[in-house]
Design brief:
By secondary structure, this protein is of the alpha+beta class. It contains ten helices and 19 strands. A hairpin with a 4-residue loop joins strand 5 and strand 6. Helix 6 packs antiparallel against helix 7. The radius of gyration is 28 Å and the shape is extended.
Length: 358
């Protein structure tokens, strides 16, 4: 290569964002050897065509990718490189979550306060409840509590509540043993999600309150720690208390309703409740409801006929997590939340906010 096309190591370092010492290290490691080395002076020179590889290497190291993995990405095709990056990110995220949980456990141990049992629950039941209410969480900048689950332990039951401001899911569980005291806190949803797989295999899970979180203890298994989130959880009781009277009620099979929602082509759907049926169709204000293709599902209906619209991403999770084969929909008008619950079991209740119809 002509010398005019080569750059000394200092110039190359400035252009690619790496230090000269890092370039020497990567050259010795075989990841980025110089294009030419002066046999007399030992000076290293790099070509312009090496800038992209050098910059990519810098970015890979900035996300803490090990050298061997970085080399594999650099030498792979686009699809394989993307897969390797995804695997690395998944490991980093899992390690970070484990570190946060372990830090919470250490802080609780340093505080010296023993855990207080606030509930004793069946493992599979607790795992199901966690997964059901987690569908109503959201990661919102500035509102970390929306990514958490409000846990309230009383003398008779434990209540799990989550909300993303468009949905509100509440699940009530009966403790197998009386708690040592009442307790309430907002628990990190990601920690609960990670713990759900472990506690599912436990016959009984002892839920203990700690200074900085809760501990889920299963006999014969490693304890799982879940952190508490700071900030005030939304006043869901006020929301529930302010709900208007139910004007329309429909009892409908869950399976057909889910299929109808999934078959709709748009991002918004409408429910038309009337004449012993729930009709699901795209939410399109430019056509009368009777002209829009949709799916009609038989239902037991009472009250006024009503058409109400939803974002599919709001309504579908609320329906899919409901318990049992039949659902009860309590409606209060086109601009009021709908309550979705099992037709025969009331321990999971979800509120879904509608959208305005054009």
């Amino acid at each position: 290569m002509p010398n005019s096309e080569l750059m000394p190591i200092g110039v190359f370092a400035r252009r690619c964002g790496l230090t000269s010492s890092a370039l020497r290290f990567y050259a010795d490691s075989g990841l980025l050897p110089p294009a030419e080395v002066d046999p007399v002076s030992g000076y290293r020179y790099y070509g312009a065509d090496q800038l992209e590889r050098a910059a990519t290497l810098r970015r890979l190291r900035e996300i803490a990718m090990p050298l061997a993995a970085a080399e594999a990405v650099l030498d792979a095709g686009a699809e394989e490189a993307a897969r390797l990056l995804d695997e690395h990110v998944a490991r980093v995220v899992a390690d970070a979550a484990a570190t946060l949980r372990e830090a919470a456990a250490i802080k609780s141990a340093l505080a010296g306060a023993p855990g207080v049992t606030i509930a004793t629950l069946k493992g599979p039941v607790l795992a199901d409840a966690v997964e059901q209410v987690l569908t109503a969480t959201a990661h919102e900048p500035g509102m970390p509590v929306l990514a958490g689950v409000r846990v309230e332990a009383g003398p008779e039951a434990v209540t799990l509540t989550a909300t993303d401001r468009y949905r509100l899911s509440v699940r009530t569980l009966v403790s197998a043993r009386p708690p040592e005291r009442t307790w309430a806190g907002t628990v990190d949803g990601d920690d609960l999600r990670a713990a759900a797989c472990a506690v599912r295999r436990g016959a009984l899970v002892r839920v203990e309150a700690l200074p900085h979180g809760i501990r889920l203890a299963v006999a014969g298994r490693e304890d799982r720690h879940c952190r508490l989130l700071s900030g005030e959880f939304p006043d869901h009781r006020l929301m529930l208390a302010s709900l208007g009277a139910v004007t329309t009620r429909a009892t409908v099979a869950k399976g057909p309703l889910l299929r109808a929602l999934e078959e709709q082509p748009g991002e918004r759907v409408a429910l038309h409740v009337a004449d012993r049926a729930v009709r699901v169709h795209p939410l399109d204000g430019t056509h009368p409801a009777t002209t829009i293709p949709g799916t009609t599902i038989p239902a037991a209906t009472t009250g006024e006929a009503l058409r109400i619209g939803f974002e599919l991403t709001t309504l579908h999770p609320a329906v899919s997590t409901a318990i049992g084969p039949d659902l009860m929909l309590d409606l209060r008008g086109p601009d009021q939340p709908v309550t979705i619950r099992s037709a025969d079991r009331g321990d999971l209740t979800t509120l879904a906010m509608p959208v305005a119809s054009d």
